[in-house]
Specification:
Number of strands: 10
Structural class: alpha/beta
Bound molecules: S-adenosylmethionine, 6-(5-methyl-2-OXO-imidazolidin-4-yl)-hexanoic acid, iron/sulfur cluster
Largest sheet: 10 strands, parallel
Radius of gyration: 19 Å
Helix content: 40-55%
Number of helices: 12
Shape: globular
Length: about 325
């Protein structure tokens, strides 16, 4: 099945505008044709360097300029990071994502993070990092250290970006994504909805993601977590069905990618999450914390998986494999 990279804005908007049932039926058909619809990839996040960020992203509690109560902390020592990775693995996560509140890593930080990546990889986990903008040399260094994925979100439509972030350009994000792909890393790239953008702008975000030179292997769809003290606190809440539509359209545009039901799950009902899984979400963050904000309790997620008959996807089966292999491999692992 060929993947498209030539979507027009009208193509994407037409999907958003479908009747809800038609959109969900189409998205679920695409989902079931490319993935095991009952298998969900599970990652755990750790903030390895928290707060004090010089950027001004209007959604982010870690920007130094907003008074959000997030206490700035230095880069964690490697042993503490490894302890957290071991706990995440024991709790069932197959991928460990390390996040830092940086505009871009300083040279002195690169070797420290490379050592963390190497050590987490040695535990037998997939590795992911999100550290801000990278140069080609930095991306290459992380690849050599054993990094599997680099998370770098486009966050919103190109035409809305300047209303949300003033300290960098949309093009900066695209440039880092080029370096990440050139290094041979997999990309984890998505965005945030519920920031006051229009439906056309949500379509613009997904259109840009799908028209990248490669579809990101992982597409996190975050629902804005409103944090007091950030400029976006108090933004009108997005209609939950519009959030489900966003997941469904992402699934249809990027059929082979993993679509992550990312930030915002703690504020979602079980029913809303179930609709998102039906619409094509097949990846989550597991563990009581995202970076600085809350995530559902581990026990609650386990119970939700059991109620919905969902199973955690074994590592390495998520991307780049054709449908039949994915389904067969998942079934085999699940049966084992
Ligand atoms: N500083 C790096 C960067 O911005 O690329 C990496 C860390 S940053 C916290 C990673 C992502 O977290 C952002 O791109 C954004 O999508 C997400 N994020 C931050 N604050 C959020 C919020 N309040 N609600 C939802 N997602 C958020
Ligand atoms: C992504 O798309 N979402 C995650 C991860 N990538 C790094 C981060 C969500 C952060 C939510 C706000 C917080 O906890 O600080
Ligand atoms: Fe800094 Fe990333 Fe937060 Fe923006 S999203 S303020 S770059 S930590």
């Amino acid at each position: 099945m060929s993947l498209r990279h030539d979507y027009t804005r009208a193509d994407v908007q037409a999907l958003f505008d479908l009747p809800f049932n038609d959109l969900l039926a189409r998205a679920h058909a695409v989902h079931a044709a490319h993935h095991d619809p009952n298998a969900v990839q599970v990652s755990t996040l750790l903030s390895i360097k928290t707060g004090g960020c010089p950027e001004d992203c209007a959604y982010c509690p870690q920007a130094a300029r907003y008074h959000t109560g997030v206490e700035a902390q230095k880069l964690m020592p490697i042993d503490a990071v490894l302890d957290k990775a071991k706990q995440a693995k024991a709790a069932g996560a197959t991928r460990f994502c390390m996040g830092a509140a940086w505009r871009s890593p300083k040279d002195r930080d690169v070797e420290k993070v490379a050592a963390m990546i190497h050590a987490v990889k040695a535990l037998g986990m997939e590795t992911c990092a999100t550290l801000g903008m990278l140069t080609q040399d930095q991306a290459d260094r992380f690849k050599t250290a054993g990094l599997d994925y680099y998370n770098h979100n486009l966050d919103t439509a190109p035409e809305f970006y300047g209303e949300i972030i003033h300290t960098r350009e949309f093009q900066d994000r695209l440039d880092t994504l080029d370096c990440v792909r050139n290094a041979g890393l997999k990309t984890c790239c998505g965005g945030i909805v519920g920031m006051g953008e229009t439906r056309a702008q949500r379509a613009g975000l997904l259109q840009t993601l799908a028209n990248l030179p490669e579809h990101p292997q992982s597409v996190p769809i975050n629902r804005l977590v409103q944090v007091e003290g950030t400029p976006l606190a108090g933004t009108a809440l997005l209609d939950p069905f519009e959030f489900v539509r966003t997941i469904a359209v992402a699934r249809i545009l990027m059929p082979a990618s993993m679509v992550r039901l990312s930030a915002g799950r703690a504020e979602m009902s079980d029913e809303l999450q179930a609709l998102c899984f039906f619409a094509g979400a097949n990846s989550i963050f597991h563990g009581e914390k995202l970076l600085t904000t809350g995530n559902p309790d581990v026990g609650h997620d386990r119970a939700l998986f059991a109620r919905l008959g969902l199973v955690a996807m074994p590592a390495g089966l998520e991307t780049g494999t054709v449908h039949a292999d994915i389904v067969a491999d998942c079934r085999e692992h699940i049966a084992a």
